Amino acid sequence: MKILILGGDGYLGWPTAMHFSQRGDEVAVLDNFAKRRWELEEGVEPLMPTPPLQRRAKRWKEITGNEIKPFIGDLCNHRFVYNVLREFSPDAIVHYGEQPSAPYSMQNRTTAVYSQVNNVTGTLNLLFAMRRHCPDAHLIKLGTMGEYGTPNIDIEEGWITIQHNGREDTVLFPKRPGSFYHLSKVHDSANIEFTCRIWGMRATDLNQGVVYGVDTSTTELHSDLRTSFHYDHVFGTVLNRFLVQAAVGAPLTVYGQGGQTRGFLNIRDTIRCVEISVDNAAERGEFRVFNQFTEQFSINDLAEMVARVSKSQGLSVEITHLDNPRIEAEEHYYNAKHTLLTDLGLNPTFLSDEVLSKMLTTVRANCDHVDADVFAPQISWSGRNA
Ligand SMILES: NC(=O)c1ccc[n+]([C@@H]2O[C@H](COP(=O)([O-])OP(=O)(O)OC[C@H]3O[C@@H](n4cnc5c(N)ncnc54)[C@H](O)[C@@H]3O)[C@@H](O)[C@H]2O)c1
User: Fold this and answer.
1) Ligand 1 test: best mutation among 47, 84, 98, 179, most atoms within 8 Å of CB?
2) pTM summary value
3) Protein residues with CB under 6 Å of any ligand 1 atom
4) Nearest-angstrom CA–CA distance, 224 and 359
5) 108-135 pLDDT, tens digit each
6) What is the mean pLDDT of the segment spanning 75-80?
7) Domains delineated in the chain
């Protein structure tokens, strides 16, 4: 298949591109390196240096003989997007190319507007370009479990059947997201569903949980092939941050009471879920939603697991509770369905002590340049930011 990965320079995009390339698909990646600019703005960097995309693609070709073609440009530039789709003519498009951080979006008016314009405009440009140049291609779009928020009822996979005043209909599950970033994903989902219904596009919206993990089978092949692993308060997801805190002997910083419960998955399972979606395309006119996570944990659960595994490696780790910079429920009901990907063949990598221990070992081997000043949250949902 011809597969185009948007956001192919990112944490998830690059290993996904290598995976499809390795199995023999023709792969191209698109990125405008916005993430590298946000890192400079925030004064943060990945745990390990991430070589330029072109060098990674060159190294990949040397090692495997397979080509990953980079397209450098902005999804918000519609002419560029039209040109790429006309030239490459993909069968499937995996869309990771968005601003992915809730704290980044909550800093101020500028970052909130930027996050929504970047994400919503990029996806709209893509939908129009697909209609023009590859209307039969399958869009696999990365959404987030955070679109749903934490409702006091079970979370279905995208759709819910409701009886009201004696009548019944199946509608998109109600969304109550927790940041301007998460709202951008809700707007994307509504726009994509609309184009499936009106234009007959085919799309899979992957409402992904929080991803953890340092490497995959392809990033391990060479140091130039690693992916951009973040541990800072802006871009670092919680378990990744806890692992680095443990590795350098800093306390694990739980926000608030720590009862916040979310869905999580290993980066290796992200790639497998995307692969399953690509190989089982949605029908024309279908807007399909999968809840892409494998296990639910509270933040306290994760902190305790990291502390236990760290102890087994001889590290003494403390857990501290900070005032929560986010406005969110700290104790709540949470039960999200997630069977559709398993039904299609996902065999999850669960977060065992062994898996955690291996990740911690890798982090410890690479923690010489950790900046401990970027662990603590500096962005508040209340708007009182520096
Ligand atoms: N990492 C997670 O835990 C997680 C969880 C749920 C959902 N997601 C979603 O998965 C996707 C990938 O996440 P990630 O962690 O790999 O993020 P990332 O920031 O590492 O990757 C996103 C990439 O998209 C690129 N990009 C952003 N805007 C662009 C634009 N306008 N044009 C071209 N390229 C653009 C960035 O430069 C970056 O390389 C995001 O959409 C994110 O919201 C991630």
Assistant:
1) 98
2) 0.98
3) 7, 9-13, 31-35, 74-76, 96-100, 118, 122, 142, 144, 208, 210-211, 228, 237
4) 19
5) 999 999 999 999 999 999 999 999 999 9
6) 98
7) 2-374 (3.40.50.720)
